[in-house]
Amino acid sequence: MSKLFLAILFFTLPITLFSQNNIQVDSLEEPLYRPLIERYILDEIKTLRQENQSLRAEVTKKIAEAKLESSDRAVNYTTSTINNIFYIITAAASLLVLLGWRSLNDIKKSLKIDMAKKIQTLTSDYEDRLQQVEVKMTERSKVIIETQKNITDTNSIHSLWMRAGLEKSDEDKISVYDEILSIKPDDIEAMTYKADALLEIGEIRWALDLSNNAIELDNEYALAYWQRACAYSKMDKQAEALKDIKKAIDLSDTLEEELLNEKHFENLHDNKLFKSLLPK
């Protein structure tokens, strides 16, 4: 405002002087203060430019200072955080030492021992399981082998029975029955049929022994008593023969129809007890 006031005063002063000296101002072709105004405007623009540059430099300086201050704060915060972490780690390590924790080597050894124990336990467990599986597999293999053998023996015995039915001579039948007994020694049916064949060729004692063996193996087998009765009848032991006949009929009443058809009982036909056993 002071500069503007001085400019206006400077501009109006010549006009006043000219008026006082009775100079004809109207005869002037252009204002005398125009160059001064231009000079003033230029000075003002220059001043504004200088002030703007100063302001820019000051703002830039303040921004740089603010960034520097922020960087310092970040560095200080990072440093403080790292220091705090180290303090915490140091305090924790000291606490672990005070509480009696073992060194890293001890911890490694302990881990190795624990892992070895666990591995040994797992190994023992799997070994036990494998052993159980092996035992079960062995038992099943034995069962399978035994079953296969039984099937084979059954087929062989079946074939021998069919062959025995086709043989005509008693000696050949006895040979077939011997083969059956070699496969299945406790086959009481083969023993009984062999005893019958032995009776046909006169081997009464042998037939009696086979009948006794069959009865020892199965005392509920009617044909064994029947064959033994035949042997006793051939040996003229009527009491023993009649006793076995009655036992056989009690076990299987269908044998009652065969009493008169059995040729080995011919010497018993006149016996009263034998007649009483005949079907009515």
From TrEMBL:
SMART domains: TPR. Keywords: Repeat, Signal, TPR repeat. Residues 1-19 form the signal peptide. The keyword Chloroplast does not apply. InterPro entries: TPR-like_helical_dom_sf, TPR_rpt, Ycf3. It comes from the Bacteria. Coiled coil: none annotated. This is Tetratricopeptide repeat protein. It comes from Oceanihabitans sediminis. The lineage of its organism: Bacteria, Pseudomonadati, Bacteroidota, Flavobacteriia, Flavobacteriales.
